[in-house]
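User
New here, help please:
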Amino acid sequence: MGDQADVEAGSVAAGIEHSGSTPTTSADTSLAAWHAILDLLEGAVGAAERTLKDPLGPLSAALESAVVPLPEGHWQPSVLPGPLPEEARRRAVALSAAQTRIASRLEEARLDVAKQLQAVSSVPGVGDPSGAVYLDVNG
């Protein structure tokens, strides 16, 4: 029975490297990059869903909770690491369906807000410059 050093020496002689983990290939790197992109996009869908459930978000929390809204940044599309690997296809298709659903719900919410703003603006005096506030009944 040989010891571990003999096995490793034989592997090195045969051109096999054992570093404790499997070597990273460009396919592995591409898949990891795609998973990172999909994670980011799934996070955006989740944030949109949370906004629909609670439009004020952190602003609706109690003042003593010290929740500070994050600044909005300009979205930049990710640089794609090549074609979508087959292993990520199912996840990407599910994400696409979720994005379509949330986009539809956001559009419905936008139309609802537009209707509410139209109703508010139709009330006389709302948004108009105010006239005289006092009425002289004695004079």
